[in-house]
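lol so apparently i was supposed to do this last week
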Amino acid sequence: MIEELDHIGIAVHSVDEAVTRYVDGLGLRLDSVEVVPTERVRVAVLMAGRTRIELLEPTAPDSPIAKFLEKRGPGVHHLAFRCADTGAQIRVLTERGAPLLDREPRPGAHGTRVAFLHPKFLGGVLAELVEHPA
Ligand code: CO
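anyway here it is w/ cobalt (II) ion bound
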């Protein structure tokens, strides 16, 4: 079961440059900056009240974010939905015929377990399932 929107992922060329706009310009709070080696990204977590926004900068040319920037340019990359059990959610969605990009949960930032849903399922919107550690 999907519990809530966990975060919005935004592809940027430079986290440092983008943070100045979101924090100094827009007034959001910077929560953390972290490198996620499995995704080959550097992530800045911003808070808009209780809503989380993640700025994603590629750390390698073969990063999925590098490919996205090349094709589409900077902008909204994915919506992440929180669930209690990513593995169970993958099985439910697979039964419903949804095209998963991950057959098993994989490690995300902050000890999360994540999986991605192909954007063709939601009309061009990439969706992430996120399970937070208990
Ligand atoms: Co995400």
